Amino acid sequence: MDSPAWTTPLDRISVLEQDRSLLNLMTIIRDQTTSDRDFSSAVEKVVRRLIASALNHVPAEEHTITTPLNATYTGVRFTKGVCGVSILRAGACMEQALRDTWTGPLSFGKLLIQRDEETSIAKIYYSKLPASITKDVVLLLEPMLATGGSVIKAVETLTGNGVPEDSIVLVNVVSSRKGLDVVSGRFPGLKIVSAAVDMELTAQNYISPGLGDFGDRYYGTCA
């Protein structure tokens, strides 16, 4: 599969390897005939891979231990904690995978950000962040990145609360190319981990081919 052409540095944007296992899951997620239950199950499998990749951005140091055979093994141990910040409501679905995957100090924050459907301008309605967040690597949990408005508002909120920009990792299921370029251009220190990148946005600023309304499909609230 050809790699997309970026206008931003590749070392800040990581796209999961497009192997058959992932492509199969993404096919299930994108299919309009997939049931809500099967959609959620496939999403959770993708998110576990995303979280594992995102955790590679947590700093670590070499650490030597002794095995039960009285032999030494030199591995690593993380030197920072992690805070998962969900952009509600869809981002909350990624929290359990982070709980299951991360072994160190862990906290969570919540941001409620809504986009005006006509203007596409994002507005924050609620913010609850732990006091320790400035010391952690922050995984910003947002499944869909379309125009980038909600993510920009979220990053502005985090940095306004003392989180260094280069300590934030956006964890994302599907991004638009435009959204990646906009967000990366605005925040040069931000890191992004995504499972898929779609090249188009519709006139209504929906990702195409996309997967529909993520929250409605995941939580079973489609009309």
Automatic annotation (TrEMBL):
It comes from the Eukaryota. Its cofactor is Mg(2+). Keywords: Allosteric enzyme, Glycosyltransferase, GTP-binding, Nucleotide-binding, Transferase. GO terms for biological process: pyrimidine-containing compound salvage. The keyword Nuclease does not apply. SUPFAM superfamilies: PRTase-like. Pathway: Pyrimidine metabolism; UMP biosynthesis via salvage pathway; UMP from uracil: step 1/1. One of its GO terms (molecular function) is GTP binding. Residues 19-221 form the Phosphoribosyltransferase domain. It is an enzyme of class 2 (transferase). Gene3D superfamilies: 3.40.50.2020. Its EC number is 2.4.2.9. Belongs to the UPRTase family. This is uracil phosphoribosyltransferase. The lineage of its organism: Eukaryota, Fungi, Dikarya, Ascomycota, Pezizomycotina.
